[in-house]
Amino acid sequence: MECWQSIPQHFPFVESDVFVVMPDHVHGMLFFHKSDAEPTRQSLFGPQRQNLASVVRGFKVGVKVWATQQQVPFAWQSGYFDRVIRSEEELEKARRYVAGNPSAWLRDKDKPDSIFR
Predict the structure, then answer these.
(1) According to the lineage, what is the superkingdom (predicted)?
(2) Nearest CA to 32 among 62, 3, 11?
(3) Would residue 87 count as lying in a domain?
(4) Helix H or strand E encompassing 64
(5) What is the extent of the structural domain holding 94?
(6) Are 58 and 47 in contact (CB under 8 A)?
(7) Is residue 113 part of a domain?
(8) Domain-embedded: residue 88
(9) Mean pLDDT of the chain
(10) Does residue 16 sit within a domain?
(11) 36-82, pLDDT tens digit by residue?
(12) Half-sphere exposure of residue 75: CA atoms within 13 angstroms, side-chain side
């Protein structure tokens, strides 16, 4: 949780929102507040910074460093899933989903057709 909450300290244009740790994944939402006046580069490969990939990479590094220091065996999957939220309605639906995910996990883990069996 501490690594999630510290994201805006490392990326001042990012605001962290809801976040939940699940047994084998995390859910979280971030708001990006960047000026439209900032230059964009199209079709260029090079250092990636001030984008979602760099924020996720920094978060994963921070969690891995903490786990290593605490001697907690830990590894991230190589990628992540993202979704752009485009309306207030979608935002509220996504927040409800994240908040309800832990209870849904507990409810579904014992079902015979569950991925946990």
Answers:
(1) Bacteria
(2) 11
(3) yes
(4) helix 52-69
(5) 2-31+49-108
(6) no
(7) no
(8) yes
(9) 84
(10) yes
(11) 655 555 546 666 678 999 999 999 999 999 999 999 998 998 889 99
(12) 2
